Amino acid sequence: MIYSIFIYILISSPILERFVKSTSTAIDPGALRGAAARAVGALKLLANEDRLLLLCQLSQGERCVSELEEQLAIRQPTLSQQLGVLRAEGVVSTRRQGKHIFYSVADPAMLEILAVLYRLYCPEE
What we know:
With about 120 residues, the chain is mainly α. Helix content is about 65%, strand content about 10%. It has a three-stranded antiparallel beta sheet.
């Protein structure tokens, strides 16, 4: 299933679409390898349940740490660790307001991946 998600993301990528439209010959293996490496990196970030939950929540809008802790029932040390990973990878950005740090999704590609995962795995309400 992960393989099919990877292929879907890869073939539906606007970057790959532009690349394919701009060439009349076969896809350059070097460019494809680079795209595959970026996709694998994104999928590795999503392969942790806590990070996936965090990103799903943040895809709905900016949240502070205390809101995320309450909404997701993730203990504060784990929450801080996983937010640190996402921040180090440039997937989330922060904004400080007084004593609170607010997080939001900074990577538009990640929002697209989350939308695909939502369509495939989350029940309709």
